[in-house]
Amino acid sequence: MPRRNAFKPLERKKPPFEETPRTYERAHWVKPEIIVEVKFNEWTADGRLRQPIYLGTRDDKSAREVGRESQSMQKKTGRKKVAATKPASDSASKSKAGKRVNAARSLLERDTEPKPSRGHALPPGELVRRLEEIEESSGSGRLEIGSNTGIELTNLGKIFFPRKKLTKGDLMRYYVTVAPFVLPVMANRPLVLKRFPNGVKGEAFFQQNASATTPEVVRTAMIEAKGGSTNRRIVGGDLPTLLYTVQLGAISVDPWHSRLQSLDHADYTILDLDPGPGATFQRVMEVARLVREVMDGLGLHGHSRPRVRAAFISICRYPQTLPTKPLRSPRR
Question: Residues with Cβ < 8 Å from 260, sequence gap 6 or more?
């Protein structure tokens, strides 16, 4: 990204747009003078880039030379990416939770079952008690989840939710309590983490790939994308993996809409209904009810629920024979 000192002279209090765009984090507005190159997935129905990725600053271009591309040039030419892999011994590779999956998308190896148990998991109440002990002592330590399974934890006393003084340890104990309900939903789904290492008021960033230091106890899978790049992803389904995401500071953990066994076939989708100019919250509620009626009429039974920032989402389950690709086309 351009250096921060390049933005400083361009700072302004108000957005340089006729219509203020909706942001999910606090925005820092600047004069639109720096030209950058990005690749992206597609244009949304309201004319915005979906999944833009910064590639570099273009000092060789003027703003008048830049026009709207109908599709990403980088996506069309397909820059090659080589995934970094660390060497592993035969015994380590056999015990590793990773499975190679083709996200173009077919399963290359059908080893998609959860890893063999390394001992019975302790009851949630006992895990909550041990987490409290770790937080009250040094805030860091090893949590033994089962007889032969554990993860290293740090900074459990760090405040994650300032308004209610809730800590990283509180968040971890919450996930231990709800794990029996969320783990089946996340099972065998690659995860996208939104990490808040300094709490909800700090800067956040997304993580999709597992790092080279990911513990062996965490479930992962090798996924090959359409462009040929191969990345190791964190995969949901067990308690050590879930608690590891919290250890990383992930407050929001979003599972893929498909599972490892059928990456090309989503088994549910989310319709995100947000209020905005000309669309009041009352109107959003009406649309949510209409969406529910249409889904019921099609035999696609889902449910609508409110969420933060005065929005509704409708969750709709699909038969596994429905391919993912058509679901990506924007519809008004």
Answer: 99, 101, 107, 112, 188, 189, 190, 221, 235
pLDDT tens-digit profile of 167-202? 999 999 999 999 999 999 899 999 999 999 999 999
- Report whether 264 contacts 105 (CB < 8 A): yes
Which string of DSSP letters, residue by residue, matches 77-138? HT-----------HHHHHH----EEETTTEES----SPPPPSSPBPPHHHHHHHHHHHHHTT
Nearest Cα to 6, choosing from 71, 74, 59? 59
Whole-angstrom Cα distance, residue 43 to residue 218? 35
CB 194, CB 252: distance < 8 Å = yes
pLDDT band at 5 (very low <50, low <70, confident <90, very high): confident
pLDDT digits (tens, 9 = 90+) for 16-47: 888 787 776 678 888 888 888 888 877 877 67
**89 CB neighbour count, 10 Å cutoff:** 8
User: Tokens 């893929």 map to which residue?
Assistant: 256
Per DSSP bridges, beta strands 220-224 and 100-102 are parallel
CB 168 within 8 A of CB 249: yes
User: 3-state DSSP call for residue 282?
Assistant: helix
- In this prediction the pTM is 0.62
- Beta carbons within 8 Å of 226's beta carbon, 6+ residues apart: 103, 104, 105
